[in-house]
Amino acid sequence: MNASLPRDALASVVVFLVALPLCMGIAIASGLPPAKGLITGIIGGLVVGWLAGSPLQVSGPAAGLAVLVFELVRTHGLVALGPILLLAGAIQFGAGLLRLGGWFRVTAPAVVSGMLAGIGILIVLSQLHVMLDASPLPSGIANLVTFPQALGEALPLAGDGAGLDAASIGLLTIAVMWGWARFAPPPVRLVPGALLAVTVATLASLTLDLDLARVSLPDNLGEAIDWITPQSLTALADPTLLVAALALAFIASAETLLSAAAVDRMHSGPRSDFDRELSAQGIGNMLCGILGALPMTGVIVRSSANVQAGARSRFSAIFHGAWLLGFVLLLPGVLQSIPIASLAGVLVFTGCKLVDLKALRGLRRYGRMPVAIYLITTLMIVATDLLTGVLTGFALTLVKLAWGASRLKIGVRPHGDHEAELRLAGTATFLQVPRLARTLARIAPDTHLRVPLDRLTYIDHACLELLEDWGRSAALAGGSLTIPPRALQRRLEGRGWQRAGLGTARSAG
Fold it and tell me: Would you say 71 and 224 are in contact if contact means Cβ atoms under 8 Å apart?
């Protein structure tokens, strides 16, 4: 462990430099002061980093929850965020103790990708307003519709031009991040693009003496803490807040464990303990709720930076939390010089990357329905809200599963005179009885009919009774029905059905 400390210390500096602008930017996107995001990043490093079940994963405020937090604060006020987050963290902690970590990962890829794309679009639509030094509106549609007006007011010809300087700084930030990601030589790629972009934009704004909105931090970090109170806990009596806590717990857990699984694929070290990771996240979110900070998840951007920087143990994540704490306590003036429009540019770039077109192309391999679920989930999130969009995606996934489970292909293949084969593929349930009955009615009763079940996943009582009835009628006319008994037993989940009138026919199979 001691041998890995130098590499972990170096990696922690890289992670700290990646996390610093993101913690503040995500807080602003959530409608909260930047200090709230820094507190969450510090807890994610010092506390969750020590307890985590995924040693190389880094925890902190996540862009994926910014939209949900913004809506919660707008609807219920900042006072409700602490109780909601405390309950969500308790749910995560309990789920980890009950070893439910694996179940939180059972999420359809189309829904997850659609959720991230929808969140990315909402972040872009809201932060485009922030890049103009304007305030974002509550919904994605409202931000989209009013953006031309906000842009017009930022231009000198139509408005007072107050937002033009801010927009220029935001665009400069995006350009530096894009150029660094595309053209940076390998030896210096460990320098985070977000940090470089914010540094360049900040220096440019100071050199040009631009009058911009800048990061505001309290003189004492303790002033940013809003302790939860017993009185505020009574807000949980509101059923809508209970639903919000459940949604927050589920989305945060799914994002964390999917990120942990991705981090495991990046290195050859110890694998993640998903239940321990879930409990650690629960403890972290309960602490964030008590302190009135942002919710946290395991975050893939900071985690991948951690792995690529050569981290070997959890000490890298812990050290990055210590760097955040030290920087906020010792150098708050540096942070207060950063233009908010520059942090908005970081989030616009990040939001665009959440709309992963490669994931959409990957879903096309599995048919049109996963693509439709992806698109509908994304559009519903943008048009309504995050919870409605995700629930819509889950509902469509269940419909797809039900449709697939109820499909049955039926075909009859003749084999000479008075012999035929009834081919069944899929799931034979009572829903398919009318179709199966029409097919059997077209087969002459003196036919020796064989029913192989190699392409059938399941057959229920209703379809089996129908086949047995046909077999009894065929026996009277000189025909027979043959079903392989072992295959039938497997399709009936181990129940050995034996019916009068079919014993001889089955023995022939």
Answer: no
Token couple for 123 = 């972040």
Token pair belonging to 346 = 């970081």
CA dihedral 262, 263, 266, 272 (to 10 degrees): -110
State the first-to-last Cα distance of the chain, in angstroms, to the nearest integer.
64
pTM of the model: 0.75
409-426 exposure pattern, b = at least 16 Cβ within 10 A, e = fewer: ebeeeeeeeeebebbbeb
Is there a contact between 490 and 458 (Cβ–Cβ < 8 Å)? Answer: no
E-strand stretches of 398-479: 408-414, 419-428, 448-450, 456-459
Q: Which residues of 207-240 are buried (b: 16+ CB within 10 A; e: fewer)?
A: eeebebebbebeeebeebebebeeebeebbeeee
Look up residue 15 and give its two tokens: 């992670």
Is 67's pLDDT higher than 90? no
Q: Which pair of tokens denotes residue 411?
A: 């075909």
- Bridge partner list, 458: 427
The mean pLDDT of 243-255, rounded to a whole number, is 91
Burial of 265 (0-12, 13-18, 19+ CB in 10 A): exposed
Residue 202 CB coordination number (10 Å): 21
Q: Which single residue is written with the structure tokens 């974002």?
A: 136
Residue 105 pLDDT grade (very low, low, confident, very high; cuts 50, 70, 90): low
Among residues 291, 292, 281, the alpha carbon closest in space to that of 256 is found at 281
- DSSP character at residue 155: S
Tokens for 265?
Answer: 């694929």
Q: Which residues of 132-165 are buried (b: 16+ CB within 10 A; e: fewer)?
A: bbbebbebbeebbeebeebbebbeeeebeeebbb
Amino acid 160: pLDDT = 57
Token output for 56: 């190389």
